[in-house]
Design a protein that fits this description.
single chain, alpha/beta, Rossmann fold
């Protein structure tokens, strides 16, 4: 499991980054300021990635990165509310590998983390299509096509995430709580009926007979089970 160190003095942002990285399968350690990061330099130097705010109390992110570079070549992703070219150059000159301005889009952060930790290579080798009966889902284009290649639908990002979760848990019962935590996150509060609507849509699209599902099963009072056979 890749280990990431997050050095960020804004606690709400640090908590948000940590939670989302952990949902993606990373282990995360947070440091609240530059002094903590310098004191924890041994851990930073062994990390698979350091996410480092530029503006920190006690020691700047630039200073932390310069010290880190004397011990390690661990990738560094700078975060900063400053977005000028000069600031970016300063961060990169101190040894940073990438730079992301605040406020940032979560999906962009996760993509940059994936690239810097080498996860992008693994994803290229991961399953990119899913065949359900005579239909195929392309996880890269979000498209559903028929056996003859006719485009039938384009799924949303959340629908793709839900299908990938079902594929990961294929043949096992997945509780509603797990689906809500994994797909919607702990800071959103959809009802279980929301998931039911997604399942109904999947059945209409993929099942030969939606009233007698072969693939998307409801398990009373628990959740759902996805089967391919």
């Amino acid at each position: 499991m890749p280990h990431i160190c997050v050095v960020e003095d804004e606690s709400s942002l640090s908590d948000m980054i940590r939670m989302n990285l952990e949902l993606e399968g990373y282990s995360v350690r947070c440091f609240a300021d530059g002094r903590e990061a310098l004191n924890g330099m041994d851990e930073l130097s062994e990390a698979d990635l350091v996410i480092l705010d530029v503006m920190l109390p006690h020691a700047s992110g630039i200073e932390v990165c310069e010290v880190l570079r004397k011990k390690s070549d661990a990738p560094v992703l700078f975060l900063s509310a400053k977005g000028t070219t000069a600031d970016k150059i300063a961060g990169l000159k101190s040894g940073g590998n990438d730079y992301l301005g605040k406020p940032f889009d979560l999906e962009e952060l996760l993509l940059r983390v994936s690239i810097l930790t080498g996860r992008s290579v693994k994803k290229d080798k991961a399953q990119t299509v899913l065949s359900i009966g005579d239909k195929t889902v392309n996880f890269n284009t979000f498209e559903v096509t028929s056996g003859s290649g006719i485009r039938l639908a384009e799924l949303s990002k959340r629908e793709i995430d839900l299908l990938q979760l079902f594929l990961e848990k294929e043949g096992k019962v997945v509780s509603r709580d797990e689906i809500l935590d994994r797909i919607w996150g702990k800071d959103q509060f959809p009802t279980s009926r929301t998931i039911d609507n997604y399942i109904l849509a999947f059945r209409k699209l993929f099942e030969p007979d939606p009233k007698n599902p072969r693939y998307f099963h409801s398990i009373r009072s628990v959740g759902y089970k996805f089967t391919l056979n």
